[in-house]
């Protein structure tokens, strides 16, 4: 269950990271509410996951999911560049996430 909490926490981290862009400096109400709720849920689920997972592994995976998802959504939603080198670097992050999961099973 801890791994599921961690995965969902990572998805909510993507939500709040992308949400920050839409708050326009916390001047828009609904994006701000969504972003703050996503922050609370993400950190709360991370806390639940940390009951059973090593902090270093869990934090690295949490930020890795957030980084990867945010970078991909930045390309898809916000028109950020999607060059081969950038995609390769994202692939390295994913490889690190998978590697940490495999050695922590």
TrEMBL record:
Q: Where in the cell is it found?
A: Cell membrane
> Topology versus the membrane, per the UniProt entry?
Multi-pass membrane protein
| Keywords associated with the record | Cell membrane, Membrane, Transmembrane, Transmembrane helix, Transport
Chief location bin: membrane
Q: Transmembrane residues, as ranges?
A: 33-50, 57-78, 84-103
Report the superkingdom from the record: Bacteria
Q: What Gene Ontology terms describe where this protein resides (cellular component)?
A: plasma membrane
Q: Name one GO molecular function term.
A: transmembrane transporter activity
One Pfam family in the UniProt entry: Multi_Drug_Res
Q: Which InterPro entries match?
A: EmrE-like, Small_drug/metabolite_transptr, Small_multidrug_res
SUPFAM superfamilies, per the entry: Multidrug resistance efflux transporter EmrE (SSF103481)
Q: Does the keyword Cell cycle apply?
A: no
GO terms of biological process kind? xenobiotic detoxification by transmembrane export across the plasma membrane
Q: Which family does it belong to?
A: Belongs to the drug/metabolite transporter (DMT) superfamily. Small multidrug resistance (SMR) (TC 2.A.7.1) family. Gdx/SugE subfamily.
Mind telling me what this protein is named? Guanidinium exporter
What's the source species for this entry? Bosea spartocytisi
């Amino acid at each position: 269950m801890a791994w599921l909490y961690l995965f969902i926490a990572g998805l909510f981290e993507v939500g709040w990271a992308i949400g920050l862009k839409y708050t326009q400096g916390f001047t828009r109400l609904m994006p701000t509410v969504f972003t703050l709720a996503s922050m609370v849920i993400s950190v709360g689920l991370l806390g639940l996951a940390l009951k059973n997972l090593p902090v270093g592994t869990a934090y690295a995976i949490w930020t890795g999911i957030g980084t990867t998802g945010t970078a991909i959504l930045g390309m898809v939603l916000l028109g950020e560049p999607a060059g081969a080198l950038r995609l390769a670097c994202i692939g390295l992050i994913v490889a690190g996430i998978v590697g940490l999961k495999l050695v922590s099973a």
